[in-house]
Amino acid sequence: MTFYFRIIALSILLATLTSCGEDVNPNYREEVAEPEYFHRSVKQLTDVIVHDIFSPPVASRIYAYSSIAGYEALAAGDPHLKSLAGQVPHLAPAPPPPANTEIAYPLAAVAAQLKVGKSLIFSEDKMDEFRDNLYAEVRRIGMPAEVFDASVAYGEQVADHVISWYAGDMYKQTRTFPKYSITDDETKWQPTPPDYMDGIEPSWMKIRAFALDSASQFRPLPPTEYSLEPDSKWMREVNEVYTVFSGVSEEESAERQAIAQFWDCNPYVSHTVGHLMFATKKITPGGHWINIAAIAARKADADFARTVETYAMTSMAMYDAFISCWDEKYRSKLVRPETFINRHVDQEWRPLLQTPPFPEHTSGHSVVSRACAIVLTDLYGDNFAFDDDSEEEYDLPTRSYPSFLAASEEAAISRLYGGIHYRPAIDYGVRQGEQVGNHLLSRVETRAMITEERGGK
After folding, report:
1. Is the CA virtual torsion 210, 314, 107, 113 positive or negative?
2. Average pLDDT value for residue range 20-32
3. What's the rounded Cα separation, in Å, for the pair 189 and 184?
4. Which of 130, 175, 289, 417 could form an SS bridge with 372, CB 3.0 to 4.6 Å?
5. Mean pLDDT in the chain?
6. What is the distance in angstroms between the CA of the first residue and the CA of the last residue of the chain?
């Protein structure tokens, strides 16, 4: 009988471990915390953003809310992470996880990120296919089914919380606001070749920010006074754009072109060859910096929590930077170099890069790149050298940088080399982005253990 009862006890134990025939991996908690699950989910979202051709400001919104959803789901089960609720004034606490239920919080974070990301894009089927394949992969780890199901359910509950929150950010209302009005004032922006598109997101400054007190909180210096006088400061700035490849060596000219093309990040570039018209699609400037965030996290061997924190902070900085930048763009409404040079200098001149469809001042690349660089520097350090392969999939070679700030400086000057910005938009934009990034860091603390843990794994 003793032997019999031992068999019964063993059978019960095996039934518990295999739960309806499933093989449970005793290391599933560690294995599901593999950062690549989250990296891949963010990259999938980037691929869909490129496919669906979202404008840079709208793309920043997609990255931010989906990353915050992942962060909040993870923070619910990680005592080292502080919820953003309360730090972002209009964000209420996420629903608490169910009592007496085991949750794999990394899986919940992925589920939250994927659901919010799907809610903000068009190609939902692409997100569904990726999610199903990823979940099947996670199941193969050997996690108990009830833990898997509870974790996904909790992540999606946090996602629903974030979706309800973003519904109040004024995005939906701004879809019905008036378009940009073109005037006869030649100092003001007008649509540019080849598509002469309407000005993108003229009401973006009305979108609710995360840390900014107002869209105009870090209002930059205004652009240089418009003038047709040959010796005016304005004309000197115009001439700098017009002659940016003149008087330099072939090597320097090639390097300037390479820099401009590497940081182009135009989500929709039109091409006309004879009677044939087609377009190429690429990542937005925000997408480029999200990829840099991934590069940094991987190089630092960041764990799951640091990885999710990196995406959340980087995307929040970019989101607020676009709001700040667009506030100035549609206040000054400054004419682009292409329009001015064609009218008053050389009607045949074309910039190296296709001019984006919105006003000139300040440079979005300058503002956004600096804000993201400030946050990444806070997370990983001042002299974090890295190789940026973000553009390899668009047939451009990897470029290397000694720091995030150095990369942001190159991103900023690329707009002069590309022929689409005057110098003040670049210089003032860098300062504007630095203010936005530092302000976010002063308002939001992600680590419950203060900042000693920042800088790596």
Report:
1. positive
2. 88
3. 10
4. 289
5. 93
6. 54
Closest CA to 335 of 218, 236, 422: 422
Question: Three-class SS of residue 46?
Answer: helix
- The alpha carbon of 387 is separated from its chain's Cα centroid by a whole number of angstroms, namely 18
Residues 320-347 have pLDDT tens digits of 999 999 999 999 999 999 999 999 999 9
The residue assigned the tokens 């451009």 is 396
If residue 272 lies in a helix (H) or strand (E), which one and from where to where?
strand 269-273
Q: Which of 223, 403, 426, 222 is nearest to 295 (CA)?
A: 403
Whether residue 7 has pLDDT greater than 80: no
Q: Which helix (H) or strand (E) holds 279?
A: strand 276-280
CB atoms near residue 135 (< 10 Å): 16
Q: Are 50 and 281 in contact (CB under 8 A)?
A: yes
Pick the more confident residue, 8 or 249: 249
Nearest to 322 by CA among 270, 279, 287: 287
Per cent of the chain over pLDDT 70 is 92
CA atoms within 13 A on the CB side of 264: 22
Q: In whole angstroms, what is the distance from residue 236 CA to residue 269 CA?
A: 29
Q: Helix (H, G, I), strand (E, B), or coil: what is residue 271?
A: strand
Strand partners, 278: 271
> Three-state SS for 88?
strand
Q: Residue 56 belongs to what H/E stretch?
A: helix 56-75
| Distance, CA of 399 to CA of 396 (rounded, Å) | 9
d(CA 360, CA 429): 11
Question: Which pLDDT belongs to residue 451?
Answer: 44
Calculate the alpha carbon distances from 31 to 142, 218, 273, 453 in Å: 9, 44, 51, 22
Per-residue pLDDT, 270: 73
Using the predicted structure, report yes or no on whether residue 232 has a pLDDT greater than 80.
yes
pLDDT score of 8: 33
Residue 230, both tokens: 């040959």
- Amino acid identity for residue 454 in this structure: R
Do residues 288 and 396 lie in contact, with contact meaning Cβ atoms separated by under 8 Å? no
Which pLDDT score is estimated for 14? 38
Window from 310-314, 315-319, 447-451 with minimum mean pLDDT: 447-451
Sort residue 256 into left (φ over 0), alpha (ψ -120 to 50) or beta: alpha
Element (H, E) at 232: none
d(CA 80, CA 449): 6
